[in-house]
């Protein structure tokens, strides 16, 4: 092998690409990535060994809660080459999801509306991104075949497999790890999904960018449930995203009042982040919020039958939680809404439905109690339904993210 060539792994015999050819291919991959709708593509090696101890500590503390899949694969999550033998590079890809007219502040201000994380109002990103990454892999394959390199081996991932997507994105130069643990970039903020293409070509790697949180701690201070237990560390069991999407059982009572009107996920740690002031809007119309989920009225969402739920959430990530957890979450938000006889009536009616299970029933009973307590107290002093933290988040959005307020 000459100095200017790099041999492929044993799994990809016979051909070599020169260093120049690999550099040209890397540039081409970035161009194809843009054409396929990715806002940023970076390349990194597969060494995540420096993250293994942090991942193990996170698991040992039980921060993954009931997400058994986080612990099931051992350290494979930090070892892409074990997950996909022969893989020596990871192409990390970013796709922006922030929809136009996000209406963050108006949604959080009105406790009679349900708040749905802005990543989830449109089409489910998993399939869309995986298909685009597959196309990227196919383009690379064709290109290599034209250069007589056979056996290009690639595998796309989006969230679905045991792989540490954020540390990989950080190494590939897509951004730094914020104190909320998400990846963010000075020009792009953090409203983006990550996906990867694991590949067996020795492409040149990119350089990580400098950390930029400095002394800011806004996300840590604003988290409604104090889930960011230390900089860069989220205790999922406290995170509203986990409580409303991942947790299959009852939401612990201590968190219910803190959830406010957030019925699917939570964006607060990103809403107060100054880096999001410059975040671009998505170019994918598929990620635009569906009209039925735009600033939706809680009582109307609560009235959806299972059939309506399944049809109106078809193709969206929300459908994955199913009608039962959907009702559980909305019941909590209704309990947190201002005192209202119509809400109590709707809760009581729902409780009478024949197919209502124990889980939803218990949350409905909790919500009715909250409503009745507020009604009783209202004669003496009106209760403001927004927590101080939420009021602060709303002011921060109005000031820092006026376009998206
Ligand atoms: C499990 C999971 C969750 C859990 C746990 C969150 C968590 N922080 O781990 C829950 C359900 C709570 C969750 C919530 C959300 N998630 Co999530 N989630 C995942 C998933 C599947 C795995 C994450 C993971 O491995 N966690 C385990 C911990 C240990 O890993 P880690 O946080 O990356 O920690 C590493 C670093 O922080 C680092 N580290 C530790 N200490 C230190 C210290 C320093 C100084 C530094 C620099 C680093 C560092 O080492 C750790 C180990 O490697 C990923 C997809 C994937 N496969 O990676 C999506 C993912 C992280 N989620 C994503 C999103 C969008 C969200 C939400 C915003 C959704 C929402 N709006 O509701 C919230 C945000 C909450 C938050 N602040 O994290 C995106 C993030 C995109 C981005 N810009 O970074 C991902 C990448 C999905 C995707 N494909 O786009 N999520
Ligand atoms: S998503 Fe919400 S609950 Fe979870 S860490 Fe961020 S602010 Fe806290
Ligand atoms: S809010 Fe501040 S500390 Fe948190 S991620 Fe953004 S810049 Fe970093």
TrEMBL record:
A GO CC term? cytoplasm
Q: How is the cofactor bound?
A: Binds 2 [4Fe-4S] clusters per monomer.
Cofactor(s) named in the record: [4Fe-4S] cluster; cob(II)alamin
Quote the InterPro entries the UniProt record gives. 4Fe4S_Fe-S-bd, 4Fe4S_Fe_S_CS, QueG, QueG_DUF1730
Major localization class:
cytoplasm
List of catalytic residues: 159 (proton donor)
Please name the pathway. tRNA modification; tRNA-queuosine biosynthesis
Where on this chain does cob(II)alamin bind? 77, 159, 177, 183, 194, 241, 266-267
> What Gene3D superfamilies does the entry give?
3.30.70.20
Q: What Pfam families does the record tag this protein with?
A: Fer4_16, QueG_DUF1730
Instruction: Tell me which residues bind [4Fe-4S] cluster 2.
Output: 223, 239, 266, 269
**What positions does the entry give for [4Fe-4S] cluster 1 binding?**
213, 216, 219, 273
Per the record, what are the reactions this protein catalyses? epoxyqueuosine(34) in tRNA + AH2 = queuosine(34) in tRNA + A + H2O
Quick check: keyword Cytoplasm in the entry? yes
Q: Where in the cell is it found?
A: Cytoplasm
Residues binding tRNA are 307
Which UniProt keyword terms apply here? 4Fe-4S, Cobalamin, Cobalt, Cytoplasm, Iron, Iron-sulfur, Metal-binding, Oxidoreductase, Queuosine biosynthesis, tRNA processing
- Key word Oxidoreductase present in the record? yes
User: Mind listing the GO molecular function terms for this protein?
Assistant: 4 iron, 4 sulfur cluster binding; cobalamin binding; epoxyqueuosine reductase activity; metal ion binding
Family recorded in the similarity comment = Belongs to the QueG family.
**Subunit comment for this entry?**
Monomer.
| Its job | Catalyzes the conversion of epoxyqueuosine (oQ) to queuosine (Q), which is a hypermodified base found in the wobble positions of tRNA(Asp), tRNA(Asn), tRNA(His) and tRNA(Tyr).
Protein's recorded name: Epoxyqueuosine reductase
